[in-house]
Amino acid sequence: MDILTARGLVMAYGPTRALDGVDVTVRAGESVAVMGPSGSGKTTLLHVLAGILRPTAGAVDLAGTDLLALSDAQRTTLRRTDFGFVFQSGQLLSELPAEENAALPLLLAGQSRAAATERAGGLLRRLGLAGTERRRPGELSGGQAQRVAIARALVGRPKVVFADEPTGALDQATGREVLDLLTSVARENGAALVVVTHDAGVARWCDRTLAMRDGRVVSEFSAPTPSGAGVAP
Amino acid sequence: MTAVRLWWSLARHTHRESRVPTVLAVTAFAVTTWAVLTVAGGVRAFQARAQLPGADPTYPFLSWVAVALLVVPTATLGAAAARLTIARRDERLAKLRLAGATSAQTTLVALLDAGAQALAGALAGVVLDLLALPAVALLRFQGRSFDIAELRLGVAPVLATVGAVLAVALLSCAVSLRRVAISPLGVAQRLPQKGLSWVRVLPVLLLGGGFVAAFNAGSVLFGFGAAVGVLVLVGLLAGTFAVFNLVGPLFVSLLGRVLAARARSVETLLAARRMGEDPKSVWRSVGGVSLVTFVAGCLSVAPGLTSGQDGADRLGADIGTGAAVTLVISAVLAAVSTGVTQASRVLDSRARYRGLHLAGTDLDVLHAARARETWIPLVVTMGGAAALSLLVVSPVLGLLRAAPVGVLWFVGCAVGGAVLVLLAARASRPLVTACASR
To answer: How many angstroms separate the CA of residue B276 from the nearest CA in chain A?
Structure first.
């Protein structure tokens, strides 16, 4: 079943087109890697799909809801309830312990603290972070902090998780480990995953890969990524 | 020379957003300088009047008491200004370092930055003082208003004040730079904040001992001459304030922990965790008005001190005026401190506001958490300060019955100060919206 569909996306900044007629379909529970060199429009596409940016033209549909017909406030709520986000780094609140950082979307949705931290704690343990629940981000390693961010992205049982260079700040071994967890835990939770990345290695973990250049999707592969796609600089 | 050129080129090409902290720092330095000059002008005028035949020697003493009361709020604002001059510049300095600037060059660039802002602020403060003098001169003491000439300081004291503001800014910048380790790899790494130590409570005991000693040896001290006695009293008063500032953050941190354990809403939880994480900065935004509350509480008995005494009506009225002026200046300093601190905290938290909003946090939640971060510690510390001041004046509480107007002052100052602080905190709301939505 298609969960997220985008048609004819154009994002123009003056004469420059960051997106130039992009069509994307994401099926429920699948993982999609978006690859391409710097400036190819990957992050813009992610922001448009997630309802953060409003495109100049085109349509985005989330399970029957026209994203662009929603008000700013409605899209903010939708991002909280239906989407999860993992950025490169720095999204955790330094003052909150890991458990509360991960539980934040549930707390924001008005769930009781006990229920929210219990669900977050379970995810943290699933991500191999048992014993670090009370630690604050400053006391965690980069890989551990990214796993807390993954727990936070998945805690509200979102339909889609968007990850923008989630392993960009990690060494290769830790990056692979984090990515393995991200894809498998997203799958277990029934969430589709859209990962923006430079790293051809990352795409191997995903069901499908979209290669972008100059604001267009130039090719699409099912895993594994063929070598010589020439998308990573 | 290279560093100076580098600084000038960077200063000219500063992004508009990075100008906000500069404007805040210059404003804070200006208000600090204005407060110092106004108070110094007042002290000078009372001392000059005391030289006249038949003059009451109490007035210079009282003006020094006012100085003691204003030292901490002024220093707090000055420190907030100094902190702003280097805030958010770590990243820029790190980039310079990466581009090949030596450690000495980056340090010099930072010092030039801080110095330029302090100088601009101090000069603006001098202009502010000159503009405000006619209004200050309207105040009536000893049965007459001031001549502007009485209040105007000479060139040397004004230059000394500007120099002192500049020196404090540079010193504070140098100290802060030492806390930011800027490696040649261009990594600006803030050293982790150290937890607050209970050692902070020790000076309370020392101060208590000082009070006991001073009370017991009062007659001996004044035996050395009134000046020594006054010096000791003013010292004790300034000490009380300094101790207040030492213990305040500890109290905020404790409050944060207690609140975090009991928080039910996410706004309260965020506010409580923030208090626990950075109690010093939370204290800086509410400490000023707590001090005003404490002072107002202590001074509430002042009208009663002189009521009913022969010939003391004028002194009583003058003490009232002096206390009101002192409190108004303290409240203004406290409100500017809060405004500046809050705005700089918002700028420091830009990335987190943006991240939270992207992930679906309503702006209202961000605003509510920030509001709680201010009013909860404000109400609690003001309550504590009021209770403490009542304790201090408890031996002479009967004076309030003799002149209940003191209670009105107290309530007026506390409420007025709190409203100013809340308004100052609210003033940075558009900044939060801008940071979150960018």
So the answer is: 8
